[in-house]
Amino acid sequence: MKKLTAPLDPSLTALLIIDVQQGLFNRANPLYQAEELLANLNSLAEQARLAGALVVYIQHYNDGFLAKDTPNWRLHTDLHIQPDDPLIHKQHGNAFEKTELKAVLDQRGVSQLVIGGLVSHGCVSATTQGALDLGYRVILAQDGHSNFHKKAAKVVRECNEKLSAAGAELAACAEITFRA
Question: What's the CA gap between 161 and 146, in Å, rounded?
Answer without folding.
Answer: 14
